[in-house]
Design brief:
One of its GO terms (molecular function) is flavin adenine dinucleotide binding. The chain is an alpha/beta fold. It has a seven-stranded mixed beta sheet. A four-stranded mixed beta sheet has the order 5-4-23-22. The protein starts with a helix and ends with a strand. The chain has two domains: about 160 residues, FAD/NAD(P)-binding domain (3-Layer(bba) Sandwich); about 240 residues, Glucose Oxidase, domain 3, CATH 3.30.560.10. Helix content is about 25%, strand content about 25%.
């Protein structure tokens, strides 16, 4: 890393660990009212609110290290450093991509990807690209309809978005008028949100001008976060005070960690729930666990919960822990030598991921990331500026999107001749286009070892709709850069997609796409007494 040693010394001198325990021997007790498994994106939120009641005791078990003192976590620009450090800050997970060919006579292709899941206090919120997006209101309304639970309606969820958020001005104090809607943002929450905090004018100007030149295809959207994201608009980030704002920084503030009823143990990897008991007449609906088994160092320990165990181990860890505990498909469990406690077929199933395909061009500009990352002098100057005043290019995410487009397939798309439209309503997008200064853009199996990395099939392109829709998305991206404003700015593309037929583009996409690192679906919600899912609401 191109950072002078003295700046590291200056930074680390202010680190304090408050009530974060890094040795199980220092933990005052192993008996609590609530035990929260996972100190990632959601765990600190739950722990914060539970311990507002001083009569309640809470233990958080986090497998990773602390977030404080990690430069790559605090400095927004350096986040790729922490993501690429698989040994210190990541779980290594085996993801299998099994993609069927479009021609039904051809066999499927299989590839294996070693992927990291976040392994640090704050989880993904301590290592992600920090883009702040709430999604489409119609998606939340669909959740409410699916589960029969009215709390998921957008108008019920929206106040919690405001409660969570604290909008802050960009570090460079540039004028933000006309770039967001202040009426849909919170001002008093723990998570800081802002626009891009260091502006690179050239790409931004071309993107906005395209919305003027091609407004029917690419309408300007002042703000993506009121529940109607369609269009082209500015990216909002969870960045404040010149650095990352995460669940760890926002919900585990020093005053919260000083609460006598909150204990957070780091380096503690939970393997399974223990001591199941039947609490009702029908065992399949009335199993309760009293504790969790976790590993610290080479030894196993048990933490007991008198009221509730809250699983917040993420899309990978949560089903893995449940399967280790005997909850899952009894056939799969028996094959691993695990006794079935509760036969739930959905455990470890339905892992899904969206695909990602990049497009890139040479540009007639020196406003690129490479102007910093490939120039040691400029790199160190930029870091020194951040260290001195929390300003400059290091306040931004390294992905450096200035704008984003949430777009739909056209109503007359040929895709709909073969597949129904999966959208929940007219205001939800099919795909996303990111604009960057350096480029443009199934199920899980459990190994017998409870601490081994699980095997996951994300089913990338297993649904033909995804590949066909992405092909049309590429076509729409090409139309975007055909606007007159890009003349003289864009040079030669890395791959000439304009000369390809739609079928050739689909083949290119299948060969050159990858996962978007946003796996979802393994803890699916369902209505009460449904025959699918495993979290009744």
């Amino acid at each position: 890393m191109l950072i002078p040693a003295f700046t590291l010394i200056t930074f680390f001198s202010s680190v304090g660990f408050c009530k974060l325990y890094e040795d199980v021997a220092d933990l005052p007790s192993l008996k609590y009212d609530f035990v929260i498994v996972g100190g990632g994106t959601a765990g600190p939120v739950v722990a914060n609110h539970l311990t507002e009641d001083s009569s309640v005791s809470v233990l958080v078990l986090e497998a990773g290290p602390p977030n404080v003192g990690v430069l790559d976590v605090q400095v927004s620009f350096l986040t790729h450093g922490v993501a690429n450090n698989g040994v210190a800050y990541s779980w290594m997970v085996n993801i299998e991509h099994i993609a069927p060919r479009y021609h039904r006579l051809e066999p499927p292709t299989r590839s294996s990807i070693i992927r990291d899941a976040r392994y640090i206090l704050g989880g993904c919120s301590s290592q992600n690209g920090m883009v702040y997006t709430r999604g489409a209101a119609e998606d939340f309304d669909r959740y409410a309809k699916l589960t029969g639970d009215e709390v998921w309606w957008w108008n019920q969820i929206f106040p919690y978005f405001l409660k969570n958020e604290r909008w802050v001005e960009p570090a460079d104090r540039h004028d933000t008028e006309g770039k967001y809607n202040p009426g849909v943002h919170g001002t008093d929450g723990p998570i800081q949100v802002s626009l891009s905090r260091f502006t690179w004018s050239e790409l931004k100007d071309h993107v906005i001008q395209t919305t003027n030149e091609l407004p029917d295809d690419f309408p300007f959207n002042l703000d993506m976060n009121p529940g109607k994201p369609l269009g082209i608009g500015s990216v909002q980030y969870t960045i404040g005070d010149g650095g990352r704002s995460s669940s760890a920084t926002g919900y585990f503030m020093p005053d919260v960690l000083q609460r006598l009823n909150l204990h957070v143990l780091l380096h503690a990897q939970v393997s399974k729930l223990i001591n199941p008991t039947q609490t009702g007449i029908v065992p399949t609906e009335s199993i309760a666990f009293q504790g969790v088994e976790f590993k610290y160092g080479s030894s196993l320990f048990v933490a007991e919960a008198s009221k509730e165990i809250i699983l917040s181990a993420g899309v990978i860890g949560t089903p893995q822990i449940l399967m280790n505990s005997g909850i899952g498909d009894h056939i799969a469990l028996e094959a691993l030598g695990i006794s079935t406690v509760l036969n739930l077929l959905s455990i470890g199933k339905n892992a899904s991921e969206h695909s990602f395909c990049a497009m890139s061009w040479a540009v007639n500009s020196n406003q690129t990331l490479e102007s910093i990352t490939r120039n040691p002098t400029r790199y160190n100057e930029a870091f020194a500026e951040w260290n001195r005043s929390r300003t400059g290019p290091f306040v931004n995410s390294p992905s450096s999107e200035t704008h984003v487009g949430w777009l739909q397939l056209s109503d007359n798309s040929s895709v709909f001749n073969r597949h129904p439209d999966p959208l929940p309503g007219p205001d939800a997008p099919h795909f996303e286009i990111l604009f960057e200064r350096n480029h443009m853009y199934g199920q899980s199996d459990q190994p017998a070892d409870p601490f081994a990395a699980p095997l996951i099939d994300i089913g990338l392109f297993s649904n033909e709709f995804d590949a066909l829709a992405l092909t049309e998305g590429i076509q729409l991206a090409l139309k975007f850069v055909s606007a007159p404003t890009w003349n003289g700015y864009l040079g030669v593309p890395t791959v000439d997609l304009t000369s390809m037929s739609p079928a050739e583009r689909t083949t290119h996409i299948r060969a050159n796409s990858g996962p978007g690192y946003h796996v979802v679906g393994t803890a699916g919600m369902s209505p009460q007494r449904a025959q699918y899912g495993w979290i009744p609401t």
